[in-house]
Amino acid sequence: ILNVEQSPQSLHVQEGDSTNFTCSFPSSNFYALHWYRWETAKSPEALFVMTLNGDEKKKGRISATLNTKEGYSYLYIKGSQPEDSATYLCASPDTGGFKTIFGAGTRLFVKA
Amino acid sequence: EAGVVQSPRYKIIEKKQPVAFWCNPISGHNTLYWYRQNLGQGPELLIRYENEEAVDDSQLPKDRFSAERLKGVDSTLKIQPAELGDSAVYLCASSRGLAGGTDTQYFGPGTRLTVL
Fold this sequence. Notes:
The complex is a heterodimer. Chain A is an all-beta fold. Chain A contains no helices and eleven strands. Chain A is globular. The model of chain A has no long low-confidence stretch (mean pLDDT 94). By secondary structure, chain B is an all-beta fold.
């Protein structure tokens, strides 16, 4: 079964800091890589879906890159704000492309 | 567009009691998922429906868990009897059912279950 790993498990930064975290996945039989943001007491929200090696996606101050050959994706947040505090989940479909395997998430705390 | 609706948001029960969770997906989404998220872990798929058919229930503990999606719209997940280890967040999600792994899932807020 596919194993998706995220690091670090948690991260504490000051407002204004830029930060990044990693998602690792098996590079064989790759379909897609999804990033979600999950704020406390809210629904997980889709950020990006990435499919192509070298792909880069951007949404405001958040961006993500993808390396399918080595099996990793980075999520970057530029100038972190307290409202960025959330758990960031990455996920990748298993064999067949339908069953989604989630990482354990990186929990980000941004202090004002 | 209304999002995925789940109820209840929180539930506290004694062990051995039954519990049920309800989910109403986004209109037009054929695929519905139930996930369980244990503390410190990512969501794990319990069951996936395509319309009213359960196409992947391999991770559903069938001795105590059951699910249904009558008429291919809303869904209910039941646990009977609940055990202490069932304490978790239960998430429902829906999607359009696109092939190829690019299907974005839209999540409800989850039900936080505590079994005492």
